[in-house]
Amino acid sequence: MMQVDHLNDEGARLRALSSYEILGTPPEQGFDDVAALAAEICGTPIAVVNFIGDGRQFFKAEVGLGVRETPLETSFCRQAILQSDFLYVPDATKDPRFEGNPLVTGAPGLRFYAGALLKTEDGQPIGTVCVLDTQPRELTEPQLASLRRLARQTMAQLELRRAARVQQAERALQSQILESATDYAIIAMDRTGRITRWNTGAAQILGWREDEMLGELTHRFFTPEDRASKQPEIEMGIALERGSAPDERWHVRKNGTRFWASGEMMPLKAEDGEIQGFLKILRDRTQQQEDAASLHDSELRFRSLVEVSPQVVWFGDAAGNITYCNAYWYDYTGLPPGETGEASWMGVIHPDYREPTRTAWLAAARTGDAYEVEFPLRRADGQYRWFLSRARPVRDTDGTLRSWIGTSLDIHERKQAETRFAALTDLSPAIIWFGNPDGSLSYLNDRWYEYTGQTPEQALPLGWGEVIHPDDLPGLLEVWEDARTREVLYDTEARLRRVDGVYRWFLIRAEPLRDEAGKVIGWLGSNSDIHDRRHAEHALQKAQDQLRLAVEATSIGIFDYDLVTGDLGWDARVCALFGLPPDAPVSYDVFLAGLHPDDRSWVDEAVKAVLDPAGDGVYDIVYRTIGLQDGVERWVAAKGQTFFAQGKAVRFIGTVRDVTASRQAEQDLRETEERYRMASRATNDAIWDWNLASDHIRWNEAVQTLFGYAADEVGPSGAWWKSHIHPDDRERVKTSIYAVIDDSTEHWSDEYRFLRADGSYAYILDRGYVIRDAQGHAVRMIGAMLDITARKRAEEHQRLLTGELQHRVKNTLAMVQAIANQTLRNATSPQEAREAFQARLIALGKAHDILTQASWTAAPIAEVIEGALSVHRQDAARIRISGPNVLLAAKPALSLALALHELATNAAKYGALSNESGIVELRWHVIHDDTAPRFCLTWSEQGGPPILSQPARRGFGSRLIERSFAAEVGGEVKLTYAPTGVVCRLEATLAAMQEQRGELAA
Fold first, then answer.
1. Alpha-carbon distance 334 to 920, whole Å?
2. pLDDT digits (tens, 9 = 90+) for 408-427
């Protein structure tokens, strides 16, 4: 902490020393006198006035040393400034502070030192006035006191030296300020008004030099009338009274001209307040005075113009309060003249726009930014019209906002036009844009953003260039720059990137927009998608080139019939088709003469029809010619187009080509195709012709009738055929057919399943023959598809029948054996056994008959029941049957038939059918619940002999029912002997009643 305090004190001491600017200065007499006087008073050979700087000891004055500086490390004064006032060392060899000091132990061998501190007013030690000797010495009190007085005298001299330096700097600064203020005339006077100082500005403004005006009265540059009215004296009096006398008036220059000046006169006072003179400052404000006068006149003219202006003109103060509106405002709104309050002008703005308008205006008034807003304004008759209101701040020369001036312009028609234009741009399929004179864009319609995916912030003002194809952008910018430079139509084509990254060609055009003076103020442009047109043009050019090459490479001839002049032109090929040389003269009569007599009349009519403006002008016919010179008959195909103008045919152009060979080939082909067509119609096979190079297949009509497809559903390709082969057969068939195609064999045959139009598959026997070229490569394959579904089904049915017959015979024999065993075991007599056995065999036979009719697949339940109960239903009303139609599988049908036969037989013997009044209710239904559907059948007897007790034992009939239904079907059988009659309930899953349960597999 002591170290920090020492560093702080040392810093303050060094700053105090620096303020005197004494270190390193040359000797001065005043300080030399102090050193000499100190040596003389103390009788020492050495005396010094020194200052202790940062690491240095500087001697401002010295006696007996001969040097200006010595090292600080061995200095006696270094110890002196550590004292509070004085350091006195009579004999340094006896003072421990200087033990080992080289100045003591070595040359010059100092022994004596006495030094008085030099202290600033705030007590900072900056040096000493000291005396030294090589001999020990004692000083008297008067000598010590004198040394202290010399130290004080040195500090006083330092203070005077510093004050003089500051005053000199201030005077230099004041003089510099006065001389540099050339825009101001600064004039100092004594108390009588005579000039004592005349700066450069005064010389420049008034024209007199300083030497001409010193001692002169200030009256000299006042106007005669001001001198007569004692204006100079009045100004001096006011300055004395008030401390300042400002004025603005005309003054006179040396050359006699007058200038308007703003000035001020102030008294000059001494430090004690005594008036020593006056200071007058003038500034030439002639231009400002003239400008103010001109402004006043301009404001008068402006106010006149404002009053007759055809638009609203208004003023506002700096706070945003409206202070004035011209007559147009009051005429338009019907408001009382002079009314400018916020409530009044807000009241005539449309309600939907009042608050946004007020907010925008107050924000502009608060920030000082320009104000611009559009809103509907109510007219005196209540109608609203759109106005554009703008305002700019009026500022002082220092930038302070003083007021506002604004206008409100009727833009109703423009707004309506903009609305219509906006609607048009939104509806336009093209991209619409506005360009600025500098090449940037200010508007793009929605088509741009939809097409490019850009946002307005990304596209405007220059981001639109990012979607131009990099290869097209330099050329586009060059054309755009040239159009703007020359102010001409902008027309170019470029590719624009769509939102999905695809580039499309666009036609880009823009017209310059000009103001009334003809100056270009912007550009209205559109971008139209011409991508398809470009491709079409390219395709057209390619087609034209191909046509030209085709015409040159083939025997196509061209004719051109000018219907205005009647000239007919044929090229050499056309002439040849009419048996004429290339240079033979031709006309329409020559054309008719060269036609085959059988074709001449109708061809003439065809030409007249194509020249009729009511037609389409298309000409496409084939006719025969007879060579006019060679007599050769030729077939000619002619195509042409008539061109019309103002409802008249003006030109007929077309081509002709010799089709004699192709005509003959077509005739041969037609005869061949006719034979092929007759052969194909004579068969039910689907005949196909497969071009292996193009994968194209031609089918005869049988493919439609065979598989149920419409004509447009039959695919003309191998891929369609392969896709309709059953998935399980497809790879096998493809392998087999391509093995034949790739091999050298010619015949192929395979069987597979082929998809019909209704989703089912037909069994097909397909056979084909491979046609190869000269190199043995397969080029075509012709074959026929024979539907063998019926054969396959018959074969399968035969196989099933054989198996079914074996199974049924075994099952029937087993069932007959079981019936016989049970019947004989329980019969009381042979006659009873024979009758029961016979009845049961008859019931079994009837069930067999029903299943045989259904090929042992499924039988309707109603038919099964009718067959089982036919013997007992002579009176249909006694056995009442009801229930839904349910198809039963073979085994459930047999089991149900036997069960119903047993129930009916028991009813006829002992139950409801044993008398004349009893009835049987037979009902069945299907139960659908959360589990699998269940089949339920109920046999209920009523009106028969009452059952007084339960049977003592179970008979064969009950066991047969349980065995035939419960065991075979997996169902439940419940027999109830109620007093009113027997009730039997049969129940099984619907699936068990309808499934074959592996019968056919057995």
1. 105
2. 998 888 888 777 776 766 66
